[in-house]
Specification:
Two copies of one chain form a homodimer. Chain A is of the alpha/beta class and 413 residues long. Chain A is built from 15 helices and 18 strands. In chain A, β4, α4 and β5 form a beta-alpha-beta unit. In chain A, α4 packs parallel to α5, α5 runs parallel beside α11 and α8 packs across α9. Chains A and B meet through α2, α7, β11, β12 and α13 of A and α2, α7, β11, β12 and α13 of B. β12 of chain A pairs antiparallel with β12 of chain B.
Chain lengths: 413, 413
């Protein structure tokens, strides 16, 4: 028997409790051992809930229980999760988690500590909720040099953009609906400003390239500026707007960013709708592969946490190696050096003058007009560096016929 | 150093040779050991090819080389691959393969033999070419009871159906193009009749449900009867026609089949075009997940074979467990008991009489007319058992107004 303790009985923690109890037969079959929840740490009481029997408010009780070999940390946030994780690993207990803040901030240190103590620190659920990605990356694609990883990494924003596209509603309206349905938090900033996707692409890049990518160095732009006019342009271009986190190897280091992006309806990521997420990987031998599933949600996330528990049980006394070199800090390239192609919306009271100005600066670009909006047009630029494009945008803003620059949305290459 | 021998220097075998040589640094990093091709078995000569240095025509030479710990079997077919694999495993060498015929026919016996000898028999490449699926199933979804697995499992047929849809060409025309481009074999039966997809869904079902599914018990129908008229109906229904292999748990056992299927453009499998393949999995906790990639192709398939080599190196002296119980034979349900919904095309010189007959037999169904074909219409049935539907089809064929039954295409539920 392997005893498990769960830290935090919120959405993910109670999901882990449910998965272990519901699928106990499956878990025994797949891990070769009986897996049992021995303790659940939470400061709240849950009167009438069966969890009461194993509830504790004292972490020391868990730490000092020799029957507990694995800890599922489902507290979220950096502290006290960080301290608890360090102490558990140091005591020779494996830790599994869905905590992306902690993994993005202290993952390498915790993996090192796990290795020193002959146990594992596993976090499949932290990068894609219920989307299996860590094992595909570190085992199934072990023969590949990963060239690029990208994806739709946040369910809240994908739900909002899908609804804006399908129902023609504004960002604010859909956000309100999403909050009522529980798909968005009361304070939605972490999702809609792209911070959640940023932490995930940082972890994914670290796993893909084997070096630690600091999320603070990744250019991040959310979806709050996307309007129904942008959606109209996307339809005209046979594209969809998705919040994309992407990371690839470039001559200047790892080129990573999070931003709304126009992707063609031919691209497999375009069929990823609602709260679903997907991760796209390009290997030098395997070519393009994609992994699709629920990016969040209680049971899918808990399923990923418990799969890590099963793997830790299978590797009792060993460290599961997931191919992220703890000691090497990746060089994240300056966003200005990245190649980009974009749609730029330009207000104008004199289209002819404006277009002349634009051709002067941007060269031969594609112009797009929208029937429903007659005081502006859009251009599709050629590919150039972000730095050069920013300069050109600044330049045209002062030129004849050109009014406000209403939005700039990157296009998937 | 781990020495590898490759059996067969055809498409996959030479791909394995290329991947090991091109990505040697990556392989050493990920496996923790240097991996080197020591011998390649082929009866042909390859004058001028660097492989000459390691070429042999004598399997005994490989078997008796103590430096060779892992054998990549890339011969295809049952014999002599089966005999060679058994002898290698018995000698304590791990075997990895892309050979779906052999795995579908003798996989359980070979896995058992591997376990007895403390080595591994791995076959990621046999089920989805370059699509990682075995590790996601057996590790990432270890906390789930798998309820259903389905997918687009054959690149040749998906290419043909995609081209028929996009270019309005006939099956025969596109097949000829595909043969010229090397996407279809000179004898295309194994692909277009669904046999290849059948073996793959048999292996996937065995992995998903942990019991051996005999491919000979799976109802299999290919795409040779699909015409451009069927494609026109699919467009009218906002669907696509795909060759789908599917398998799910039902009260009568495992309900599996391979057949062309109308799937909605909203379904993520609908964005899987050309030679790409994808596998869809439904777990009782993780919900829906999907895995997408190149279903075939030299380097993607070889990448999967070499990833298995890396895993065997990581687990030297151990058996990698992939969760397929060797001893239990699955009960495959009679296709007649499966639930099905279908589009049926009916020729008629008297629509009114025919529709009356159909409503009498099928009840309230949806009728679909096509502008380009005025001597027929189609119906969308309600869901019922295959057995009952077959009886009804037979019955209406004799009734007033009903002419030839031109096709029956199942619809994804």
């Amino acid at each position: 028997m392997t005893g498990v303790a769960i830290l935090g009985f919120g959405t993910v923690g109670s999901g882990v409790y449910d998965v272990i109890n519901t699928n106990s037969g499956v878990l025994e079959l797949k891990s070769g051992d009986k897996i049992e929840v021995k303790k659940v740490l939470d400061l709240r009481d849950f009167p009438g809930n069966p969890v009461e029997k194993v509830l504790t408010k004292d972490f020391e009780e868990i730490l000092n229980d020799p029957d507990i070999g694995i800890i599922a940390e489902a507290m979220g946030g950096v502290e006290p999760a960080f301290t608890f994780t360090k102490r558990a690993l140091a005591m020779g207990k494996s830790v599994v988690t869905s905590n992306k803040e902690l993994v993005a901030k202290h993952g390498p240190e915790l993996m090192k500590l796990a290795r020193t103590n002959g146990v594992s620190y596993l976090f499949e659920a932290s990068v894609g909720g219920g989307i299996p990605i860590i094992r595909p990356l570190c085992v199934s694609l072990a023969a590949d040099e990963i060239l690029e990883i990208s994806g739709i990494l946040n369910g809240t924003t994908n739900y909002i953009l899908t609804k804006m596209t399908e129902e023609g509603k504004s960002f604010d309206e859909v956000l309100k609906d999403a909050q009522q349905l529980g798909y968005a938090e009361a304070n939605p900033a972490a999702d809609v400003e792209g911070h959640d996707a940023c932490r995930k692409i940082a972890i994914l890049s670290s796993l893909a390239f084997g070096e630690t990518v600091n999320y603070e160095h990744i250019y991040t732009e959310g979806i709050t500026k996307i309007t129904h006019i942008d959606i109209e342009y996307s339809k005209k271009l046979n594209c969809l707007i998705k919040l994309i986190g992407s990371s690839k190897k470039s001559k200047n280091g790892i080129s990573a960013k999070v931003s709304p992006c126009l992707i063609s309806k031919e691209h497999p990521l375009s069929a990823v709708n609602g709260v679903y997420n997907a991760i796209f990987v390009k290997g030098n031998m395997s070519g393009n592969t994609m992994y699709y599933g629920s990016g969040a949600g209680k049971l899918p996330t808990a399923s990923a946490v418990v799969a890590d528990i099963v793997d830790a049980v299978r590797h009792k006394g060993l460290t599961v190696n997931i191919g992220w070199d703890c000691d090497v800090q990746a060089c994240v390239a300056d966003i200005k050096e990245a190649d980009v192609k974009a749609m730029i919306r330009i207000a104008s009271d004199n289209f002819e003058a404006a277009k002349k100005s634009i051709i002067e600066v941007f060269g031969d670009v594609q112009f797009v007009d929208l029937d429903v909006q007659d005081d502006e047009f859009a251009i599709i630029t050629n590919e150039e560096t972000e730095g050069s494009m920013a300069e050109k945008v600044e330049k045209i803003a002062t030129m004849s016929g050109v009014g406000e620059i209403r939005n700039l949305i990157r296009m998937e290459a």
